[in-house]
Amino acid sequence: MKTLIISSSLSKKSRSFVLCKEVQNELLSKKAKVTFVDARNTLINAYHKNDTEDKKWLSELVQENDNIIIGMGIHCFSVSDNLKIILDNCFENATGKFFGILCAAGGQKSYLATQHLSQICMNEWRMIQLPRVIYATSNDFDEMELTSVEIKKRIKLFSDEFYSVGKKLLT
Predict the structure, then answer these.
(1) d(CA 93, CA 60)
(2) At how many degrees (to 10) do helices 15-29 and 149-170 cross?
């Protein structure tokens, strides 16, 4: 099972990046093959602009991997513009893939914002979502360290289920 983890935030202090790294470590402990993409290190232009090498590279990764985990922050109760640019430009070969969502938000009231990402992935590419979503708030972190025992337990459960269900979908 080959898993692509995309940390879509461009923030230097991205808490969703921290969540992505936690899940990566859990999956690696299961001997899963994981490719990690940090959007802060990529250049992917809006759809109407010229292609970039990073766009081609990420599009190939989406196609080559069996499933995808998307880390996101909440912006105006929805996905960020950068995540939307990644989806619009690089997910053309994501049809039917299994995916999961990791989300970091400022507070408790944005928890339904992950549904926008679910709708995009399921409606546009008929992707299959792990029903469990990791939703963490700023209270779950101390600076850039995940401190919430509850979120750590959820990450472990998310990773176990993602690995288990993902493997079953491949057989």
Answers:
(1) 8
(2) 50
pLDDT digits (tens, 9 = 90+) for 53-73: 889 999 999 999 999 999 999
Distance CA 162, CA 119 (A): 19
Tokens of 67: 């499933």
The pTM of this model reads 0.94
Q: What own/partner pairs with CB < 8 Å and gap ≥ 24 does 85-89 have? A: 85/44, 85/45, 85/46, 85/47, 86/6, 86/8, 86/39, 86/44, 86/58, 87/120, 87/121, 87/124, 88/47, 89/44, 89/45, 89/47, 89/55, 89/58, 89/59
The listed CATH number (3.40.50.360, 3.30.565.10, 3.40.50.720, 3.90.1300.10) that belongs to domain 2-170:
3.40.50.360
Phi-psi region of 96 (alpha: psi -120 to 50; beta: other; left: phi over 0): left
Domain regions of the chain by residue span: 2-170
pLDDT at 165 over 70: yes
Q: How far apart are CA 54 and CA 27, in angstroms?
A: 25
Count of residues making up the chain: 171
